Amino acid sequence: MAASHTFSLLAFTFTLLAVASTVRGHNITQILADSPDYSSFNSYLSQTKLADEINSRTTITVLVLNNGAMSALAGKHPLSVIKSALSLLVLLDYYDPLKLHKISKGTTLSTTLYQTTGNAPGNLGFVNITDLKGGKVGFGSAASGSKLDSSYTKSVKQIPYNISILEIDAPIIAPGILTAAPSAGVSNITGLLEKAGCKTFANLLVSSGVLKTYESAVDKGLTVFAPSDEAFKAEGVPDLTKLTQAEVVSLLEYHALAEYKPKGSLKTNKNNISTLATNGAGKFDLTTSTSGDEVILHTGVAPSRLADTVLDATPVVIFTVDNVLLPAELFGKSASPAPAPAPVTAPTPSPAEAPSPTAASPPAPPTDESPDSAPSESPIDSANSKSANAAVSVSTPSLFTALVTIAAVVVSVSLRS
């Protein structure tokens, strides 16, 4: 009886350890780095930032192309077009070799990363997977009249129910995906902003001359966080007419990055992010957190949520945000006397985000959330939703350590019994 009890406890222990290893996540570029045959494919995943999007998701399948097959795309199309083509090879479901050959009714449609971009009308963001029997599986666009122009060749790697990597012999080409020209909107930033409901922000860029700074960064990479017109009317937004010209410039430059950082990259970001206004270490930077599939930007004064993607055309991405980004360097609260001693167990807020006593300073914009109260990253359990593939933040060494500790205690107790 004791032996049976001990065996059950050990089985439970190993299950915990297996779960811990599974949720630790994956890194697609590291996995493919071990296979030189995929060096071109891997390089483009990094250049287009698709690697970040893949790493931020779970229950996913990547259809990789070896260097020979990748030559059909590499160097022959703009980077934004190649990103679209490769997005069609990322399935938002888990397919290992066994599942490929057990498809219900022999054929199925799978949602791809391309479908989430909003640039895929109709069925263009779906892939047709068909079991052709005899060990063969065909892939093709789900668009009407499309052929199965690609075939499964071999399995590369699986982390069960997290990520599966399969090799196919040719790109999957959806109608028009390779002929789409880079968005003309890149050369008309203000036009895009006005159309997206950010006319106030667009006018400020023009009147301040900061638009030229944005345009000069386009070729090397530009990310814009554009507050909506409603955001400028929100309670707590300071009167911008009381700012100096230099402060207005800094505020507007704070709303952009001199790099291409799409949503997937922001979701996986763990570091402070420099903005166009950054003029020294830790000055005018941002941090990020996630809640499900949402990205929240933190300034040290007030948080702002990433609302919509106006444009994503490598190397430029423009987002709308629901609050004006208020840098602590311009809108941080005035100095105040040190607070009374707190209990030993109480955490001390950081200087940038700690609220000042009301009597010591006038009303200020809403205080940004502290690290302890920032939204936590948690996957949503829904197989058919976008948030089901949100970044998994529980993949931390502390989780693994905790589970190992629990396992050790369980084994120790069972042996004493």
UniProtKB/TrEMBL annotation:
<keyword id="KW-0732">Signal</keyword>
<keyword id="KW-0677">Repeat</keyword>
<dbReference type="GO" id="GO:0098552">
    <property type="term" value="C:side of membrane"/>
</dbReference>
<feature type="compositionally biased region" description="Low complexity">
    <location>
        <begin position="372"/>
        <end position="388"/>
    </location>
</feature>
<keyword id="KW-0336">GPI-anchor</keyword>
<comment type="similarity">
    <text>Belongs to the fasciclin-like AGP family.</text>
</comment>
<dbReference type="InterPro" id="IPR033254">
    <property type="entry name" value="Plant_FLA"/>
</dbReference>
<comment type="function">
    <text>May be a cell surface adhesion protein.</text>
</comment>
<keyword id="KW-0325">Glycoprotein</keyword>
<dbReference type="Pfam" id="PF02469">
    <property type="entry name" value="Fasciclin"/>
</dbReference>
<dbReference type="GO" id="GO:0005886">
    <property type="term" value="C:plasma membrane"/>
</dbReference>
<keyword id="KW-1003">Cell membrane</keyword>
<feature type="domain" description="FAS1">
    <location>
        <begin position="185"/>
        <end position="325"/>
    </location>
</feature>
<keyword id="KW-0654">Proteoglycan</keyword>
<feature type="signal peptide">
    <location>
        <begin position="1"/>
        <end position="25"/>
    </location>
</feature>
<feature type="region of interest" description="Disordered">
    <location>
        <begin position="337"/>
        <end position="388"/>
    </location>
</feature>
<dbReference type="InterPro" id="IPR036378">
    <property type="entry name" value="FAS1_dom_sf"/>
</dbReference>
<keyword id="KW-0449">Lipoprotein</keyword>
<keyword id="KW-0472">Membrane</keyword>
<feature type="domain" description="FAS1">
    <location>
        <begin position="25"/>
        <end position="172"/>
    </location>
</feature>
<feature type="compositionally biased region" description="Pro residues">
    <location>
        <begin position="338"/>
        <end position="368"/>
    </location>
</feature>
<protein>
    <submittedName>
        <fullName>Fasciclin-like arabinogalactan protein 8</fullName>
    </submittedName>
</protein>
<dbReference type="InterPro" id="IPR000782">
    <property type="entry name" value="FAS1_domain"/>
</dbReference>
